[in-house]
Amino acid sequence: MTTIRENLEQWEEKYLSPYAALSRHSLGRLRDEEPCDIRPVFQRDRDRILHCKAFRRLKDKTQVFLAPEGDHYRTRLTHTLEVSQNARTIAKALRLNEDLAEAIALGHDLGHTPFGHAGERALNRVCPYGFEHSEQSVRTVDVLEKDGQGLNLTFEVRDGIRNHQTKGNPATLEGKIVRLSDKIAYIHHDCDDAIRAGILKESDIPKDIQETAGRTTGERLDRFIHDIVTNSFGKNEICMSPEVGGAMKKLRAFLFSNVYTNPYAKGEEGKAELLIETLYDYYLHHLEKMSAEFQMLMERGEPRERVVCDYIGAMTDRFAIAQYEEIYIPKCWPLRA
User: Fold this and answer.
1) 191-to-135, 205, 216 alpha-carbon distances in Å
2) pLDDT per residue as tens digits for the range 148-192
3) CA 122 to chain centroid
4) Half-sphere exposure of 197 (CA within 13 A, CB side)
5) Triad 277, 279, 281: Cα angle to 5°
6) Where is pLDDT greater, at 45 or 260?
7) Among 205, 183, 184, which Cα is nearest to 194's?
8) pLDDT band for position 55 (50/70/90)?
9) Of 35, 167, 261, 312, which shows the fewest CB atoms inside 10 Å?
10) Is the per-residue pLDDT at 265 higher than 70?
11) pLDDT by residue (tens digit) across 102-136?
């Protein structure tokens, strides 16, 4: 009897683009396992990511504004959800594998540190093995989740996670969609958050960018996605028109100059980096203070410097601050009756 999964795999072969990554043709997992009778492999990977601890921690990790108090500023989790929505929209329009695009998008930032790129820079400086969040995201799904067992994801999802940054070259079109969707998401929401924070006004954005890409954050998001779909349809590539792609690059450069290096928005990052470096030094000399799952990694032969990075990199902003206060901030003497 044909399973639901097999019927879905047959549907993919019949209806998806000839350039789509088909679930049935996946290059497989790190460890062989019995297939699910309901879900194709990429849908199963999506579910594993959605239910893992690292995904839940994204809600308390910085996107751009450190530990924001306002309810409407993006966090690393809301960023991830916006990347996922962009990727699903594009993949569906191009008749590519929506499940694969969604799984890559949901997993692409699982290895991000507390305090965003500030934490990443700090760990990269102090760890002799270096630290890069895309590689750490793969390490998270391969090694750190499920008490050292990992999630055992497919090659295609792991490849898309590893190669989601600008320098990456994903092996699938779905991975290439996420690579662009990530940029579109942070350009859109970081601009929106900066306007909300009073760092930017819409009128500050150069006129040539507005004329090509749109005069509001919503217009630009719509323009970027439509441009990718229009220029990629029926092709074995994911691309943008020179005009709109050029406007997106200019807007990204504008944000780097006016938001990502803005002293008002980023003035606390030096403190965050010092906090992360201090915690790294502390745990390097107090390995027993780390939780049992990280102790186990060292027992398996993992270098202590790498495991300390794993422990700190997994922290949320709030937990990192609480650990620092617990270790270094003296407590007031309690009042006795």
Assistant:
1) 27, 10, 10
2) 999 999 999 999 999 999 999 999 999 999 999 999 999 999 999
3) 18
4) 23
5) 70
6) 45
7) 205
8) very high
9) 167
10) no
11) 999 999 999 999 999 999 999 999 999 999 999 99
CB contact set of 86 (below 8 Å; sequence gap of 6+): 105, 181, 184, 185, 221, 225
Could you give the C-alpha distances from 248 to 94, 209, 221, 243, 307, in angstroms and in order?
Answer: 21, 8, 10, 9, 38
pLDDT at 65 over 80: no
Is the pTM here over 0.90, yes or no? yes
Cβ-count burial 283-318 (b if 16+ within 10 Å, e if not): beeeeeebeebbeebeeeeeeeebbbbbbbbbbbbe
CA–CA separation, 2 vs 144, rounded Å?
A: 35
CB-based burial label for 261 (10 Å; 0-12, 13-18, 19+) = exposed
Q: At what angle do helices 269-285 and 304-314 cross, to 10 degrees?
A: 140
Specify the DSSP class assigned to residue 95. Answer: T
**Closest by CA position to 221, among listed 247, 254, 195:** 247
- Provide CB contacts within 8 A for 116, sequence distance 6+: 61, 62, 63, 64, 66, 76
3 state SS of 233: coil
Query: Structure tokens of 174?
Result: 């779905």
Average pLDDT, the chain: 95
What sign does the CA torsion over 130, 133, 135, 140 have?
Answer: positive
